[in-house]
Write a structure and sequence with these properties.
A hairpin with a 2-residue loop joins strand 4 and strand 5. Strands 1, 2, 3, 4, 5, 6 and 7 form a seven-stranded mixed β-sheet that branches. The chain has helices at 2-5, 33-37, 42-50, 56-61, 86-89, 102-122, 155-163, 182-188, 198-207, 211-229, and strands at residues 12-15, 19-21, 25-26, 136-143, 146-153, 168-173, 179-180. The model has no long low-confidence stretch (mean pLDDT 88). Helix content is 40%, strand content 14%. Helix 3 packs across helix 10. The protein has ten helices and seven strands. By secondary structure, the chain is of the alpha/beta class.
Length: 236
């Protein structure tokens, strides 16, 4: 408990292959739409144009699971807001999915380029970002003997570091939630979500570790990359 409470005071390095963003995208080349952007700018347009899931379950399973989950929030959040209609979603810069307005898309591109150029020219200086997000921060997803680190804040810095060749990311763990596991989800049943939704919640959690879904994400990113290049599209 003491470690969790004071976790924001200590930073450590996590291998990039263990870092995850949004709905399952890894911080690896060909596995993250923000990294694809540095290869082909229009690929980010394709991401936001084509990736418009209606809820978290659809987002993580890429539509293969049709059960009902009426939110784009993660089930381990204590407040689960209903999903916004598309016309309202466009008004917000939700970095994890589309649709977005053109102004917001251009703003996202500018942030990526500016952050990358700044770190490339001046080196990584986390102290310049100030409290509370001096360091890239997030929490752990724990499954048996495996783990992932979900990056909650500092996403653009993380992308810039990976693009600059870092093989691990300096991060801090936020106190709440410090980690999420099947045991955590079981304890939240009946509080953060109805107990009868536990099977869906478990699927959402498991989707982060599912190797077949990870491969599917690679495939859809490759498809969007081909579209961005104006090449013929492969239908999966």
């Amino acid at each position: 408990m003491a470690v969790a409470r004071d976790s924001h005071r200590f930073y450590f390095h996590v291998p990039i292959e263990k870092c995850v963003w949004g709905y399952g995208w890894r911080y690896m080349k060909a596995e993250h739409p923000f990294l694809d952007f540095f290869e082909v700018e229009a690929s980010l347009d394709e991401f936001y144009r084509n990736y418009q899931p209606q809820n978290t379950l659809e987002a993580l399973t890429l539509g293969s699971d049709k059960r009902h989950w009426d939110s784009l929030e993660f089930p381990w959040h204590f407040f689960i807001a209903p999903k916004l209609d598309v016309k309202y979603r466009k008004q917000y810069l939700n970095q994890h999915l589309g649709p977005v307005m053109s102004e917001k898309l251009n703003h996202e591109k500018l942030r990526l380029i500016t952050t990358f150029n700044s770190i490339k020219a001046q080196g990584y200086q986390p102290q310049k970002y100030g409290y509370p997000n001096t360091h890239i921060c997030g929490y752990f997803l724990l499954k048996n003997n495996d783990f992932l680190f979900y990056i909650e804040a500092g996403k653009h810095r993380a992308i810039a570091l990976v693009e600059l060749g870092y093989t691990s990311l300096p991060v801090v763990a936020i106190p709440e939630p410090y980690f999420i596991s099947h045991q955590t989800l079981l304890g939240l049943a009946g509080t953060a979500y109805p107990e009868e939704d536990l099977p869906i919640v478990q699927t959402i959690f498991e989707s982060y570790f599912d190797s077949s879904l990870r491969q599917r994400r690679r495939q859809v990113l490759a498809e969007w990359m081909r579209r961005a290049r104006g090449e013929s599209v492969v239908v999966f």
